[in-house]
Amino acid sequence: MLIERRQLIDQLARLLASFRAVELVGPRQVGKTTLARHFIDVTSPHYFDLEDPVSRQRLTDPISTLAGLQGLVVIDEVQHMPALPETLRVLMDRPGHMHQNGQYLLLGSASPRVMHKSESLLGRAVTLEVSGFDIGETGTNAHTVQQLWLRGGFPAAYLAPDDAVSTQWRTAAIQRHVSSDLPLLGMNAPAPLMTRFWQMLAHYHGQTWNAAEPARSLGITEPTVRRYLDYLTQTFMVRQLQPWHANLAKRQVKAPKIYFRDTGLLHALLGIRNLPQLLAHPLSGASWEGFALEQVLRIAQPDEAYFWATHQGAELDLLLFKDSRRIGVEFKRSDAPKLTPSMRIAMEDLKLDALYVVYPGQHRYALAEQVEAVPLTSLLP
To answer: Is the overall model pTM greater than 0.85, yes or no?
Structure first.
């Protein structure tokens, strides 16, 4: 089964038509190299895979190797050479058209801030983030949506022949990330300790973050725990959804909420191997909330995104700012969600233009003025 990611291909093509350098970032094995193959032959001398010793050898003297290349140059797993952007800055600042002097597509498995030792590409490169499959790519029938929720969006996990093979792949991916990827980026925690932290973090999925309890359980300091969380965030494993602070006479929550960006990895860490186990699990509702939240962010592409909560108990799962509008989103894994007092408070206190209650059903219906229950799959344009 082949899933062509036409929207991503088109996005990348538009960026390459306008910018001298594009950073294509996202987790390892999420499909970045497959996307790059639409623009370059990987056997070309213009393609460098920095996990390949031969490619690294070719870039021993990067300035002389790259200076003579015209047209598009692709450098895969660029985090293996954190000093390389300094060289690229020099090359990109040369006068002349980008197709004459070289254009650069840089593929990396962490945020640019973590991968590079300097800010040398600041203002020179544009970033496009690649995540796993979403419902727009896999389809919206009930079976494919449930499979995407259970297995997550990594292509090898989603397309595996059965749930057991998918679980094996995801478990191996977690271990590889802990033992290889994080140390490469400067994360010097022992792999068993980092694995325990990640397993502990799974139980925080959908909850407000508090570093004290994990630090106490692991016997490390709270700053160390926060650093571990930041590394998982900067390698696209975890989302720290920040709180919105409205100008209200109410005490508001100020700590971020934690979500796994891929529910397949969440389920592997929780020991969930199939759909019946997922549906019966105590964290099933929180898992679906995180799954739906990631889909909404991919579809809506907001300017800014937050959650909101007060110490009096009112809360909003997702607050989106887009085109000067304030949109509220609540996630309910129920057959027929209803209007709640918390939703009314959020509408009034946050001055929302609209509030959508996203649920896994099939029918769209009004709950109140400017409040609507919306099936997840009907959010697609």
So the answer is: yes
